[in-house]
Input
Amino acid sequence: PRITTDPGRLSQTGYDAALAAGLEPEEIVEITSVVGLITIADTNARALENERLALPAPAADAGEPHRQRVHGLSTKGGWSPMVTPDTAEGMTKVLYEGIQAQAGFVFNVARALSSVPEAIRDFFGAFFPNYSTHGDVRSGGLTRPQVELLASTTSAYNDCFY
Output
């Protein structure tokens, strides 16, 4: 819950406690990604004044996590093992290139999710269509600095880590 309610207080101590409780780094990444996706969906529902829906039951054929380790993981720059853009390979590299093309840089959240490339794909698949503030601003609309001011002010108002 702290991921959405108090992200400014996330700490390595909490991360280490999750590891000590038996979670693998990739499981923490997947949980974080799911929480992020639900937050995007809930935020959109509130913005559209729609009723929040209960989560569906898992599909019987949902399958198992692949549990394959991504190459090039390092804890340099964070608590969780991650892949840097300059060492990315395979699906992670493709995803980083797509994010770079849309945003002009690779978000730290993408790096934090990089031990599970599917988590990057799923999170940014929901993020960009709904919160894309890094592409062109429509002519006659808000300027880029105005968009960033609005985003950072809203985040500060909501005690968000942004």
Observations:
- The two ends are 17 Å apart (CA to CA).
- DSSP finds seven helices and no strands in the chain.
- The mean pLDDT is 79.
- Helices lie at 2-5, 12-20, 25-47, 90-103, 108-112, 117-131, 144-157.
